[in-house]
Write a structure and sequence with these properties.
Elements lengths: L6 H12 L8 H8 L2 H28 L6 H9 L1 H34 L1 H5 L4 E3 L2 E3 L1 H18 L2 H28 L6 H5 L5 E3 L15 E3 L1 H18 L5 H4 L7 H30 L2 H5 L6 H10 L3 H33 L17 H17 L2 H29 L14 H20 L5 H8 L1 H15 L1
Antiparallel strand pairs: 1-2, 3-4
Helix pairs in contact: 1-8, 1-12, 1-15, 2-3, 2-10, 3-10, 3-12, 3-17, 3-18, 4-5, 4-17, 5-7, 5-15, 5-16, 5-17, 7-8, 7-15, 7-16, 8-12, 8-15, 10-17, 10-18, 14-15, 15-16, 17-18, 17-19
Length: 471
Amino acid sequence: MHKKLKLWDAVMLVMGSMIGSGIFIVSADIMRNLGSGFWLIVVWIITGIMTIAAAISYGELSALFPKAGGQYTYLKEIFGKKMGFLYGWGLFTVIQTGTIAAVAVAFGKYTAYLIPALNDAAPIFQSGEFKITWIQIVAILVILLLTYINTRGVESGKLLQNIFTGSKILALLGLIAAGFFFVNVSHLSENFSFGWDSFSNIRKDALGNLTNYGWERIGGMTLLGGIAAAMVGSVFSSVAWESVTFVSGEIDNPKKNVVKSMIYGTSAVMVLYIAANVVYLNALDRDTVAFAANDRVAVAASQNIFGSAGTIIIALLVMVSTFGCNNGLILAGARVFQTMARDGMFFRSAAENNTNEVPGNALWMQGIWASLLCLSGQYGNLLDMISFVIVLFYMITVFGVIYLRIKQPELQRPYKTWLYPVTPVVYLIIGTGFCILLLIYKQQYTWPGFIIVLLGLPVYYLINRKQSSAK
């Protein structure tokens, strides 16, 4: 593959793939679960430690296996083809494509914020609860447009990624600065006045709508369950940084630049996320954070900062953010499916590059499936359930660093995990706690995603049987 991506491009891919719509929304749910500005920031700090520890650990694997496919390649090389396939299966069925669909629909919703006619229009088609709206059509058009741009060559995707990632970073920095200087009444001390005390305020009415019924003090195991539930949103807002490993084969000096891009990119994004949450706590009181309309905390904060223009400012920021995020996801994801195809683990036609030296068929397969998920209307529920599986695969991959150190200590490692074995162990401890607590207290976030991945097992055996017959 041609090495057309430099270190800066790789960092922009990491940051652009991470920053989507989550940071503007999920803090409402975190506040409802824990009821304190202190615990809100703690959740984001824990998530930041997890994310950066994983990125540092992945660096060792990226230097050992500096080729396209990233996490799929690491799992296949360390634990065998079956584990690699199960990850790739989950990536195609929902992790990557479901994220693309969700981010595209977020773009459509904020476009409708600026063009109310899209919001008010009758559904194009409706049968019972299933319906197709103009927002979904906008989402699909965005996916197809970005897919087409990326089929024109990696240079096209790279340019778009750098422009949109740079724009949203500058816009976020502007929002953060304004959140400290232009707020008339600061709620920061009020939100931090609860200290270590934690509260819950999660109850729904008969129609399933959240209601502000008052804050109930929690502690002990209930608090741990609340932290795990709160982290579903923060973890999902902080994934996709590993997308840069999918395009290792097209990065200049991948043994050094992939790990640098992951560490620089994840660290910068987590600092931005924590700063943005401090702004929310500065601009809004506890109830407004927890019960912002449609969980749009950033919109509520922006209205307090900029007045009536705040809604438009945030709508534009989210549109830029989601557009750039999806470009990164689309650019990177197809490289995994191409690598799988070359291993006989995916549609054979996805293996080849087009005349622009990019995996055109894999890009279109990914784009079409993501578009169908947009129409299904179920991707949002699937994504809520997939955070458990994402962390599980992260843990298996991070454990792979320790496993290889024990099994193959003689391997030449161009980069060694910083503070090994502390860094991977820290991730494994936090990740294990997160997964166990979800299994105990929030099973709706665990089993559905796990079952989706396990459905890949019969597909794997079917593929292998066909290959054996062909031989």
